[in-house]
Amino acid sequence: MPSVSEQPFRPEHFERQDERDDTLFYSVARLETHIDDHAIAAVGKLYAELLPPDAEVLDFMSSWKSHMPEGLRLNRLTGLGLNEVELRENDQLDGWVVHDVNETVELPFAEGSFDAAVMCVSVQYLVHPVETFREVRRVLRPGGPFIVTYSNRPFPEKAVAIWWACSMEDRARLVGGYFHYAGGWEGLTAQDRSERREAGADPLFAVWARKAAD
């Protein structure tokens, strides 16, 4: 894979069908789940495996559900998303911030604020993914995991061009590339975490890495 300084991404890779301000598209609260119950269960199992107990966790590009499993002990879960109504409806969050990462990559948190970060079925909407992954790394403590999950049901008008150009397998490599070119991550892992594999069931894929020590 090319070095961090030689990232292959171009602006046209992150063009979208709908280039309007994201705050317009997400101004309507969507109080519905975007993956089926089996995929949601797979997300919860992954979090139970990877999130440290009593952690302070950032739910990145959050919505009205965070899919944290029952029994997982967290010290604090902070949501960052675009729709205030959805964030207010999320009863797992201890706090939340409305913030458009596609407009302002810099996150409104101090360096080393969190023990872990998760992003559920939203990576396909990032228009500055490498810079965003670098910023997530900044707000994590050393060793903290960033867990990215995705399925096959995006909002088509907001998913970036390179996402549509990739197969499901290639998308794991793409997300892995975001980690690689952001720099400062270790233990990169990609897995198919699908609970059911029959036709019509939502798949669930995960890619994660941990913040390397400075």
Descriptive account of the structure:
The protein has 214 residues and is α/β, with parallel strands linked by helices. It has a single domain, classed as Rossmann fold. Helix content is 26%, strand content 21%. It is built from six helices and seven strands. The chain has a seven-stranded mixed sheet, sandwiched between helices. Strand 4, helix 4 and strand 5 form a beta-alpha-beta unit. Helix 4 crosses helix 6. The longest helix is centred in the C-terminal third of the chain and has 15 residues. The chain is globular. The relative contact order is 0.19. The mean pLDDT is 90.
Q: Which fold name fills CATH's third level, the topology?
A: Rossmann fold
Give the fraction of residues assigned to helices: 25-40%
The total of beta strands comes to 7
Strand content: 15-25%
| Strand line-up across the major sheet | 3-2-1-4-5-7-6
Oligomer: single chain
Q: Please, what is the CATH homologous superfamily? A: Vaccinia Virus protein VP39
The CATH architecture term is: 3-Layer(aba) Sandwich
Class based on secondary structure composition and strand pairing? alpha/beta
Task: Describe the SSE topology.
Layout: H1 22-25, H2 37-50, E1 55-60, E2 74-81, H3 84-89, E3 95-98, E4 116-120, H4 129-139, E5 145-150, H5 161-165, H6 168-182, E6 185-192, E7 205-211
Parallel strand pairs: 1-2, 1-4, 2-3, 4-5
Antiparallel strand pairs: 5-7, 6-7
Helix pairs in contact: 4-6
